């Protein structure tokens, strides 16, 4: 399956607006190249009609754009596909977080909670999450789900993922489901 891309050599500077939220932007230069994008596409992570922007080291994950949405590669490494499961999408709708500003722990917790909802507790809803995992800022306007217990419900959810900040890519909003309703800018408040 070929990666569907478009030439962007003449793109206007208004396509991406810097938010300047990253503490060390020079350490978060994109490390996903066109070969990585092609491999992800071949895995079926996105519908065939999704337009993925070619690799560009000059664009940071915290930019805002009316045309493009930034995706971290991490959830796809866990086997997720877009559109994400409905429970996960509800979380992002409710919090107004951008996908790329969430820590890996958020994705792991949402995957487990989605399974719990599907198999054991169908009435589990997004509003129940803060009981065990309130959402907190973790620097550079990134967020995690912080366990309120010394005995967390989900073990090893806080495992660090080295280099994950450098693994992101952009998909054209109008080429994916709900793309035009996803956040344009990163959320910058301390708690949600």
Structure report:
This protein is an alpha+beta fold and 192 residues long. It has one domain. It contains 5 helices and 4 strands. The strands form 2 sheets. Strands 1-4 form a two-stranded antiparallel ribbon. Strands 2-3 form a two-stranded antiparallel sheet. Helix 3 (86-95) crosses helix 4 (104-119).
List keywords for this structure.
two-stranded antiparallel sheet, two-stranded antiparallel ribbon, 192 residues
Summarize the structure.
With 192 residues, the chain is α+β, with helices and mostly antiparallel strands. Helix content is 22%, strand content 8%.
Biggest β-sheet: strands ordered side by side in the sheet: 1-4
Class by helix and strand content? alpha+beta
Strand content: 5-15%
Helix content: 10-25%
Which whole number gives the mean pLDDT? 88
The Rg value, from CA coordinates, equals: 17 Å
Coarse morphology? globular
Total count of strands: 4
How many strands, what sense, and barrel or not for the largest sheet?
2 strands, antiparallel
Number of helices: 5
Query: How far from one another are the termini?
Result: 39 Å
How many discrete domains?
A: 1
- SSE arrangement, N to C: HEHHHHEEE
Low-confidence blocks of residues? 1-13
Summarize the SSE layout with pairings.
Elements: H1 34-42, E1 68-72, H2 74-77, H3 86-95, H4 104-119, H5 129-132, E2 135-137, E3 143-145, E4 168-172
Antiparallel strand pairs: 1-4, 2-3
């Amino acid at each position: 399956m070929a990666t569907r891309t478009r030439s962007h050599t003449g793109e206007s500077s208004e396509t991406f607006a810097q938010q300047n939220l990253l503490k060390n932007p020079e350490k978060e230069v994109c490390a996903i190249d066109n070969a990585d994008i092609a491999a992800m596409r071949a895995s079926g992570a996105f519908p065939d009609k999704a337009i993925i922007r070619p690799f560009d080291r000059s664009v940071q994950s915290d930019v805002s754009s009316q045309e493009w949405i930034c995706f971290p590669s991490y959830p796809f490494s866990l086997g997720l596909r877009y559109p994400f499961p409905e429970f996960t999408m509800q979380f992002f709708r409710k919090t107004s977080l951008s996908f790329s500003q969430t820590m890996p722990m958020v994705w792991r917790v949402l995957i487990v909670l989605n399974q719990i909802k599907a198999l054991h507790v169908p009435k589990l809803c997004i509003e129940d999450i803060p009981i065990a995992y309130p959402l907190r800022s973790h620097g550079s306007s990134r967020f995690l789900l912080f366990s309120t217990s010394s005995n967390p419900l989900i073990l090893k959810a806080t495992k660090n993922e080295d280099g994950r900040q450098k693994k992101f890519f952009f998909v054209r909003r109008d080429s994916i489901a709900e793309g035009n309703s996803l956040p344009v800018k990163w959320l910058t408040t301390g708690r949600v």
